[in-house]
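Objective 1.3, modelling of assemblies. Example input:
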Amino acid sequence: MSATDTPVRTQGSADAERRLGVKENPVSRVGAMIVMGVFTVYFLMPIWWLLVSATKDRAQFTSTAPLWFADFSLWTNISNLLNYGDGIFVKWMVNSALYTVGGAFFGTILAAMCGYALGKYPFRGRETIFNVVLGGVLVPATALALPLFLLFSTVSLTNTFWSVFLPSLVSPFGVYLARIYAAASVPDELLEAARLDGSGEVRTFFTVSVRLMLPALVTVFLFQFVAIWNNFFLPLIMLRDESTFPVTLGLYTWTTQVNQIPELSGLVLVGALLSIIPLIVIFLLLQRFWRNGLGAGSVK
Amino acid sequence: MKTKNRAISVALLTVIALAGCSSTEPTSTDASGPANPATSKECQPATGNVELTFTTWVPGMDTVVALWNEQNPDIQVTVQTGPNGNGGTYQNFFNQLKAGNAPDLGQIEYDALPNFRVQDGLVNLGVCADVLAAQDEFVGWTWNQVSFGEEGNVYGIPQDAGPMAMFYRKDLFEQNNIPVPTTWAEYQDAAVKIKELGGYITNFSQSDINQFAGFVWQAGGSWFQNDGTSWSVGLTSPESIKVADYWQGLIDDGLVSANPPWTDEWNNAYNTGSDWTWISAVWGANSISAGAPATAGNWAVAPMPQWNAGDNAAGNWGGSSTAVFKGTENVYEAAKFALWLNTSDEALTALNKAANLYPATVAGANLPALKEGVEFYGGQAIYDVFAQASTQVNPDFTWGPTMTQVYADASDGFKAAVSGGGTLADALTATQDSTITTLKSQAIPVKE
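Predicted structure (tokens):
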């Protein structure tokens, strides 16, 4: 009803507001801040809970307010955790680091080489290969775990470091990103110049192209790092020997034993807190590259 | 039923005998006779040294196995571990059986054994004379869980048991002059009084379906039966429905809390004295002391309430066996290790110490550690109550081959019932139907 009263005026005032500058519109600004604030709280609340819970001893864990500190016994909890089962938790963290850093590093190199080849060298079947790789992005890693187990069984590699490490090296999304970025950021003229100067293709790749592709490679590395650190299903299916577990599987194993060993519930909390620290650190260190890399992929 | 089982096992033994050792003719019709002709062939000691793998999720099992390895240099056992059975290890076993690299031995809970048997994953240890001879060392009903009541068949060595009793807040019952209930009717009366005082008599667990199975077990019901050719499903048997209706009554009157089990709220309800009792298995003793540390010294244990005054029936919740997987080349050694692990005093003591396992053997109830008073329970020798309960468990309760599905479906229905959508009996009826459908879809013969 009111819309028919003064249609022109409403239209005009809206235009005026837009001309004054979108940046300064206090309503939308406040609205955006509220939405972001709500989501920030939503995402940080579990971590806050985890942090608070990890500082309580078992008696206070159930009897005190869940979101605020009681007596501070974080250090005792950590020392209990590190001493439990002959320091198996430390072993798990080291395993996770090995799987993750190794897998992310070599996986990034593989993805970079593959994406670079697809991006810079025209050859028959290039698009077919690329489309197959793109198809690989769509297949969830979980769906591949059981076939991988049967494959690794035939070569007697299950329950070994390699059964988790080797599949971690493959990143179809990394190949996709590396190709897009290589095509965008490595000029053909530069490669021509390198060839004229007598540089081999491999040498050109490592000395010239990798540097140009670095932001994308850091992104691939980060993606791989997070994916492998959080990888759970593949180790669950592959590994039986506690000393090869990554920290995700180790903590899960503990949670299923809580009925028998109740003290584990506290250790799982502290362990979960410690296990996310490497992720936080690597994010803080590399996040600006992450943003650049994502942007590159989306614009092209 | 019993004669039929016997006939089947005779038939089975005949097949084994014919396949394994054609010169011996099975002359005796008594399958329980000592002259088991198959023993000689399929359960022979190896000539050289033997290495076995054993997958289990019992915490601290490696220390127990280390005892064995020290004494048996010719049979070395490697412990593999992982999450609990339904948490992934059972699926891993099936994957490994498919890939042909299953461990020699594995931990399997009683309620999962039928599944592995139906999938043909287990070695029938009835071929080993030593195993058959050990039957009397075990509490009768635990042996039935691994033999399925069939003479001469053994699909695992019983490891531990979960006889049930009632944990209750002795102090609160005394302070308020409420008699400790001995029958389910008294339990309900007590629940009404406790409700008036602002508490709940217990928490009804919407997802511990095997606890509910323990209640049905006590009432004399069985959720499955197998006559040797086909399964019948008894989720809606009169006993099962009786138990469902009883608890539905408590839920309808608001006499029980309905916190999701094993959560902080659940622990908190016990820790703050809001929930007064818990009908649970022997291993529950540690769940309370860990979850409700503020109530130390105030708890006691009494036998489960009975359906008829003067009865003495108990239920069971949990318990595992040590099974030997198809594909092993060392049945004899595997069986020998499994027997040692589950009958020798040193192993049972170590398992109890490491993981609070309650032995499935008759003698195991007399371990020194199970005779002591427990401080958390005001010094009461609580394990005496459970030892008594263990002898009162009905031997005829049978699990089905699709328990994972049964638990999931029943749990869905129970959750709905707790929040007012339908009743527990409805949930059981729905699960009965879905179970029959599942069995059919897996080509497992089932009677309707």
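Chain A has a mean pLDDT of 86.
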